[in-house]
Amino acid sequence: MALAAQTVELLDLARQREPQARERLLEAIIGLCNSASDIIDTESVQGLLGSIFLQLVAEAEADIRARLSEKLSSATWAPPALINVLALDDIEIAAPVIANSPVLKDHDLIRILVEATLDHQIAVARRGKISATVVEAILQQEEPAVLTALATNDSAVLTEDGLARLVDSSRRVAALRSPLARHPRLSSDLALRLYAWVGQSLRASLTERFRLEPGVLDQALAESVREAHAIPGAGDTLARMATQDEAENERRLVTKLHDGGQLKPGFLLRTLRERKLNLFCSALATLGGFQTDHIRRAIDSDRPELLALACVSVGIDRGVFPSILEQVRELNGGRPMGGPDSLRRATGAFGPFDPDIAGMAFRQAIAVV
User: Fold this and answer.
1) pLDDT tens by residue, 154-174
2) For residue 289, what are the CA distances in angstroms to 99, 276, 292, 296, 357?
3) Rounded CA separation 340/329 (Å)
4) What is the dihedral of CA 313, 318, 319, 320, to 10 degrees?
5) What is the Rg, in whole angstroms, of the alpha carbon atoms belonging to the chain?
6) CA 137 to chain centre
């Protein structure tokens, strides 16, 4: 198509406000940029392109942004401001650019690790050939799910020290053990250290891969046992430490999501689906401005209407609550109890009440439980 005809078409699309016209305009501009990518990589042109794209993206529907992310995920000419906006969008939109965009630099990836959701962080850890700088940022955060994603990324620039830190973390994060046992850069010394934490099948795999001697293995296991039982009650202490580590990781996750504006009522449903009751309590308390101990007292009581009031205060819908109550009871030994009419009493707390009034009512009621 001649340049004049293309210009007329672009101007015509720009005048239209329908979503389909917005998408066709975006695709037309991308086509032009792809065909002239060797001459548009200048600061002035990049600034203009960034302004155009950002204006169009601000008006685009989520599915259009998702397709735009896919189309620009490998473009070297894509404006950095646009790529960073897409990288911080919903994870379904952000995933292609986080995984592949050559425009994202180390500082951009570290910003995602600090500011974005857990799913975004996992996507960064899975990105091909991430640098030692990004790897170090992941190791410092010590988020179990992100560490596990890093352990599966064979292309990451992972130093021997970094790999050793992952092996040490596998003592408390079971999900790390299998990918580390298969990691191509695992040394025999680290394999021996890992051997003490893994199950029988992984031990057999490590023994075969590194030709570990039975005497050396017995010594490693004996040292592990001695560490656990060096003083009376040490086993219980280690168990408490593991629980404390998990609780601290959950608290940090909730704080990070809340500070980034990503902690939403939907996260509560996700925690229950993943059978993480403590995380549910922490997230509900943070969303409602309650004490975590008060949420725990509510779910341990015989008054499910207390849990309902807390849910109303954070915007949970009446129709969703029966499922929440059922899952909480399943994870909490049947509590909160309350008899056969408990669900009816609990759902009665939903209305019509303003969330602030429900929050106030919860605080007053929990004070006497």
Assistant:
1) 999 999 999 999 999 998 888
2) 36, 20, 9, 14, 13
3) 14
4) 20
5) 26
6) 15
Q: Tell me, what's the pLDDT at 12?
A: 54
Helix, coil or strand: residue 78: coil
- In this structure, what token pair is assigned to residue 97? 């650019």
List the structure tokens of 124.
Answer: 């960064």
The one-letter code for the residue type at 162 is G
pLDDT at res. 252: 82
Whether 64 contacts 44, CB under 8 Å: no
Q: pLDDT of 114-140, one tens digit each?
A: 889 999 999 999 999 999 999 999 999
And the tokens for 150? Answer: 């890093």
SS (H, E, C) 266-282: HHHHHHHHCCCHHHHHH
pTM more than 0.90: no
Q: Which of 221, 213, 164 is nearest to 190 (CA)?
A: 164
13 has a pLDDT exceeding 70: no
User: For residues 331 and 324, is the Cβ–Cβ distance under 8 A?
Assistant: no
